[in-house]
Design a protein that fits this description.
This is SRPBCC domain-containing protein. The chain is an alpha+beta fold. It has four helices and eight strands, in the order ββααββββββαα. A hairpin with a 4-residue loop joins β1 and β2. It is globular.
Amino acid sequence: MTNNLLFDFTLDKATKTVFINREFDADLSLVWEAFTTAEILDQWVAPKPWSSKTKFMDFKVGGRRFYAMVSPEGQERWAIQKYTSITPKTNFKMFNAFADKDENPELPGSDWDYTFSEQNGKTTVSITIYNESLARLEKMIEMGFKEGYAMSMTNLENLLSTLSNK
């Protein structure tokens, strides 16, 4: 496992956008699978000690993922993601919003654009998150989004190491 992998997190309040670039010491197919398969997502997406549980996921254009982040005390924070574009193993886009347990979205939400590329056995994932409102973006950051996402990326790095036997 390589310890000096790229992790770049940039916040641009003027465009209400977050830019994330993260490199993984794993091949593209495995990283793509980790971002697009419910069983694998549930193993890394929640920052510890929280866990993730997917109620359903239909990874296709027009499909949705409905999942919860679950605290150690059992508190659930639901989110719904609608896939708007998929180009296998290179890009997918989705609309993300918090929701109640009955799948009613709490708007505004955000548009996520994931781009995957591989070079020399390392895969880079570039994520652009556009928020519909500056207030939502500022609240995300205030709630610890950057730190939580960094923890999720570390979870994924460790999982990929196990899955790829590196």
